[in-house]
Amino acid sequence: MGPTGQAHAWTTVLTGGTTRDMHQPAMRAPFRPGTGARPPYLAGRGDKQALLREFLTNLGAGLAPGTFVVLYGPRGNGKTALLGWLEREAGRSFGVATTAALPTEIPDGASLVARIEPTRWYHWFTSETIASIGRSWRTKEPMAAVAGRVLAARARKTPLLLLLDEAHRLRPEAGEALLTAAQRVAADLPFLLVLAGTPDVRPHLDTLGASFWNRAEKIRLGRLDPSGAADGFREPFRNAEIRVEAEALDRMVRESECYPYFIQLLGRAVWRRALASAAEPRVTPEVVEAAIPEFRAQKDDYYLDRFEEFERFGLLPVATGVAKAFASRNVLSAAGLDEAIQTGLGERADRDSLGRARSALRNLGFVWRVRGRPDWEPGIPSLMDFMREHAGSS
Ligand SMILES: Nc1ncnc2c1ncn2[C@@H]1O[C@H](COP(=O)(O)OP(=O)(O)OP(=O)(O)O)[C@@H](O)[C@H]1O
Ligand SMILES: [Mg+2]
């Protein structure tokens, strides 16, 4: 396609068929930074998608999975994005019905039951009535048994997928019933529960029942690998027929640190520059360089939120101590992390406070275990730079 044809093609893509002047603000960038925002292209998750598709295939064939799934990983790595993909995939090609819920929507067993079977008679009652029904049920029959019955009734009619995002916030009143019921029903019927949560979903499940974590199929979601991150940048541009030069792509991958949220943030900044820069947009190294200041300013805003979070939790000295320990290396041993935390804690360092600080850093996604090893890596490397840079501000 010649230059003119190409320009026409991307203009048409961007404007949904009507040719407009290419500098019009109506050209919405496909990149969407933000919690839960659906990415233009779900990059680098092929192995996880294949595993989840296998579950869907079996469910669609009426087979009982015998387990449930937990997606877990630090914030901004795409748990919600993958759940969204799963929901669409289930409906599109596997004939599996999906119900999605958040912990705030199911504060107790009765609301859980109402959520699973929303068309039943109790749908017509107020939440207070449902709560009192829940109480009277509980006196006769444990809530897990009620939930199990309702789940089984649905799964007998149609294979069923139940998605629960933010599972680290699941209230015990609903959580125990849900997990017990899910295990029982998934043993015999085509029913799959998929939970997604930050790394503290594990200790949280442990408080709901000793064996839930061990019995689950775990899917770990960390940063992408470089080729996945490259796809995350390349594909949305390719769909709009905008060429991305190899060196520019390399630069974007490095700058994003393969962190999905940053792919969206940087992708959007580059998109704007590419469209503003020439009659025929193209992503060159110069375009990327020009977009980087905007990206870094937004990244700093994001990091300042993190900084304030540490401040609120009294974790600033600990986080700074750990950031300093990462200054010269990419990975810390288990003992190395504890030593860095201890330095940050100073005189307050006893075993309990050490353990609490370690869990807090992990739960906030500041550190993350290297796959299959007891060592630790930064959740996002440049957050360590930010913490070191502002160490004196605490
Ligand atoms: N595989 C991916 N490829 C490209 N972008 C992605 C991918 N996964 C997620 N994103 C983008 O990253 C950002 C964060 O994704 P998402 O909100 O799903 O993360 P999360 O793990 O659910 O975070 P949180 O724990 O804060 O809820 C979103 O802007 C999303 O579009
Ligand atoms: Mg999420």
If you consult CATH, what is the topology of the largest domain?
Answer: Rossmann fold
Under the CATH scheme, the architecture of the largest domain is 3-Layer(aba) Sandwich
Bound molecules: adenosine-5'-triphosphate, magnesium ion
- CATH superfamily membership of the largest domain: P-loop containing nucleotide triphosphate hydrolases
State the order of secondary-structure elements, H for helix, E for strand.
HHEHEHHHEHEHHEHEHHEHHHHEEH
CATH level 1 name of the largest domain: Alpha Beta
In which range does the helix fraction lie?
A: 55-70%
- Kindly provide the radius of gyration, computed on alpha-carbon positions and rounded to a whole number of angstroms: 24 Å
Mean pLDDT across the residues is 87
Helix and strand arrangement:
Blueprint: H1 3-15, H2 46-60, E1 69-72, H3 79-93, E2 97-101, H4 109-116, H5 127-140, H6 143-157, E3 160-164, H7 172-188, E4 191-197, H8 201-208, H9 212-215, E5 217-220, H10 226-239, E6 243-244, H11 246-256, H12 260-277, E7 282-283, H13 285-312, H14 316-325, H15 334-345, H16 351-363, E8 367-369, E9 376-378, H17 381-389
Parallel strand pairs: 1-4, 1-5, 2-3, 3-4, 6-7
Antiparallel strand pairs: 8-9
The structure holds adenosine-5'-triphosphate and magnesium ion (MG).
Adenosine-5'-triphosphate binds at residues 32-37, 39, 42-45, 73, 75-81, 198, 232, 260-261, 263-264.
